[in-house]
Write a structure and sequence with these properties.
The protein has 295 residues and is mainly β. Helices cover 6% and strands 57% of the residues. The radius of gyration is 21 Å and the shape is globular.
Length: 295
């Protein structure tokens, strides 16, 4: 529970900083804040302009995985693949020379992740909205397609995509690299997190195995929600190398609590468990598959 509250507060702080600049809601998950930020080029090819304008001829070309530093977020907008975002002033090195210029925000990564000579590069690639109908009334479900790429020595080795909702839980996006967690033929687990800035907003973690033969495999997701000592929905995974872990099994456990009318000595309402859940997933390291055990 304490870990969940800490995560909510951390994401809230970062998101608030991210909103200090010009407001481009489609691009808020990049969380660009601070004086200067190191990022990778996310697009296969990114043209650098002398000013924030596509009418300007490119001064340089940067490629997937190239290192850049964000110096400034401009107020000049550009819409590509349904995403409206700003031009960024960046610093980069070309032919041994430090240069600067302008690129559109959607061409850079959300953060920098690296293990050895492998760069893990992710960002929102495009809008992926869908439409549902109820009583002949159309309702747009706002969503993003997020892409994760692995790049080694400037070459794209693997990529995988997933859908994330464009709601309050997309106000922050972060990621981390874990060990192989004791799973056979897995080098690392990559976790991409989308979260919000207030209580009651889901924090969603998307898991991907990075195998020893350089493949991405999508794992089950997990979601946590906390609402200020009123309600908690907590999901956790137990991997093979963790306490109570079992070889090539990933255990998902869920717990829900809600406040009662009783008040504890610290002035907070006493919580009671209202629901629990447990699932066991089997990892097949040879065939690179994870399946729900018993199905």
């Amino acid at each position: 529970m304490k870990k969940l509250l800490l995560a909510v507060l951390l994401f809230a702080t970062k998101s608030l900083f991210a909103q200090e600049g010009p407001d481009f809601s489609d691009m808020r998950s990049w969380c660009l804040y601070g004086d200067s930020l190191s990022r990778y080029i996310f697009a296969d090819t990114a043209f650098v302009r002398v000013s924030p304008d596509t009418k300007q001829a490119p001064k340089d070309t940067l490629l997937l995985g190239d290192n850049i530093k964000v110096l400034e977020i401009t107020e000049k907008p550009l819409t590509i693949r349904g995403l409206k975002g700003p031009w960024l002033k960046i610093e980069y090195t070309k032919n041994g020379e430090v240069r600067n210029g302008y690129v559109w925000q959607g061409l850079i990564s959300c953060a920098q992740l690296r293990r050895g000579d492998t760069k893990f590069i992710y960002a929102i690639e495009r809008r992926a909205d869908s439409v549902s109908f109820e009583n002949k009334t159309a309702d747009t479900i706002r969503r993003f397609l997020v892409r994760l790429k692995a790049v080694q020595n400037g070459n794209l080795v693997a990529k995988i995509g997933f859908i994330a909702y464009d709601d309050e839980s997309a106000n922050y996006c972060g990621a981390k690299i874990m060990s192989g967690m004791g799973l056979t033929n897995v080098q690392n687990m990559i976790v991409i997190t989308f979260s919000g800035e207030a209580c009651g907003i889901p924090t969603s973690d998307y898991y991907f195995a990075w195998t020893k033969d350089s493949m991405f495999v999508r794992f089950p997701d997990k979601t946590n929600i906390g609402d200020a000592d009123a309600f908690y929905h907590s999901e956790e995974f137990i991997f093979p190398n963790e306490k109570k872990g079992q070889p090539d099994l990933v255990v998902w456990e869920m717990n829900e609590e809600e406040a009662t009318d009783e008040v504890e000595k610290n002035g907070l309402y006493k919580m009671k468990t209202t629901d629990k859940g447990r699932k066991v997933y089997q990892w097949d390291g040879e065939n690179k598959k994870i399946t729900l055990k018993g199905k």
